Amino acid sequence: MIKTITILLVFFISGMLFSCGELVLGPDPENTPQENFQLLWDDFDRHYSRFELKGVNWDSLYIIYQPQINSNTTGEQLFDIISSLLSHLKDTHAKLETPYGIYHYWPKKFKRNFNPEIIESNYLTNAKQYRAYTYGKLKDELGYIHIKSFTYSEESYKFIDTIISEFKNCTGIVVDVRNNGGGNSSNAEIVAGRFTDTERLFAYAKYRNGPNHNDFTELFPAYIKPDGDRQFTKSIALLTNRYSGSATEDLVLMMKVLPYVTLMGDTTSGSIGGHPITRELPNLWIYRLSTGRYYSADYESFEGTGIPPDIPVLITESDSLNGKDTILEKAMELLQ
After folding, report:
1. Domains of the chain, with CATH numbers?
2. Residue environment code for 185-222, b if the CB has 16+ CB neighbours within 10 A, otherwise e
């Protein structure tokens, strides 16, 4: 007999909890190529949130790929088939990890417009390092913070309090998230809370909640609010590039609503977090899929396109060879 039990599925975004869902318990699925494919396809069919956005007909893809699998399909062949299936989504949060390789989509290569060695050598006075942070003073009493990732423990990001304290007399701060591919959005929230003057709406989110691909919850508002002992609310330049993605784009949305923050550099990656969840197949392969859709405070979606800067600035090949970070220099001019 198949049993149904109610469980609490918790979605967290900026201090809000959302819950829903039932879990169906039955016999353990068989570890066969056909069953592993079917389980993954069914899970995406039921929970994935971006079919309409990506223009993907998931049923049509099933007709193409399912017949390619039989009981004699090898692990390597199954990996290739599922990777080809997922490639149609063009989603950086759709991921497959196996002994035969890892499938992880990333858009075409872009110019990075960022070289940390140039910044530390030519711009920073007494550069300091702490886990994800590189920070120091620029000329004219400007502070600089580069956050390379949001993948460290939450506690480590609270070191931002020490940095803000050191920069309390600065006239402005450059917050650099170029090449930050993301991580945990709650870590981004810790950082943003140190630059927020008052509680502000910064985004909306909705989640798949039914069998149809367009079944979603209502839109839930997300807020950022001051956090920590001290907030820096003077002029801030936030630097981004095409490799600023996922949780980093959450930070950009949080900072974007602050009237004293200016976004500079290049457009972000367009891989804004969609509340990805991770699953395991009977063959122990790990996969990930997006279950939510995010929008800005103005109801704009940046998935697949990226968040554009207020002031676009690129670094020429000549400037880079001469040790110049044009984006940082423009930010310093703005803050002076």
Report:
1. 3-104 (3.30.750), 116-196+231-272+307-335 (3.90.226.10)
2. bbbbbbbbbbbbeeebebbbbbbbbeeebeebbeebeb
Q: How confident is the model at residue 1 (pLDDT cuts 50, 70, 90)?
A: very low
The 3-state secondary structure of the chain reads CCEEEEEEEEEEECCEEEEEEEEEECCCCCCCHHHHHHHHHHHHHHHCCCHHHHCCCHHHHHHHHHHHCCCCCCHHHHHHHHHHHHHCCCCCCCEEEECCEEEECCCCCCCCCCCHHHHHHHCCEEEEEECCEEEEEECCCEEEEEECCECCCHHHHCCHHHHHHHCCCCCEEEEECCCCCCECHHHHHHHHHCCCCCCEEEEEEEEECCCCCCCECCCEEEEECCCCCCCCCCEEEEEECCCCCCHHHHHHHHHHCCCCEEEEECCCCCCCCCCEEEEECCCCCEEEEECEEEEECCCCCCCCCCCCCCEECCCCHHHHHCCCCHHHHHHHHHHC
Taking all residues of the chain, what is their mean pLDDT, rounded to a whole number? 91
The order of strands in the sheet holding 286-290 is 101-104, 95-98, 286-290, 276-280
Match 């039914």 to its residue by tokens: 210
Contact criterion met (CB below 8 Å) for 304 and 53: yes
CB contact at 8 A, 265 and 239 = yes
Question: How much is the average pLDDT of 159-184?
Answer: 96
Which residues is 206 bridged to in the sheet? 293
- In angstroms, the CA 229 to CA 208 distance is 37
pLDDT band at residue 28 using 50, 70 and 90 as cut-offs: confident
* Contact between 10 and 27 (Cβ < 8 Å): no
Backbone φ and ψ of 68, nearest 5°: -75, -10
Tens-digit pLDDT profile for residues 94-112? 999 999 999 999 877 888 9
This model's pTM is above 0.85: yes
Q: Could you tell me what percent of the chain has a pLDDT over 70?
A: 92
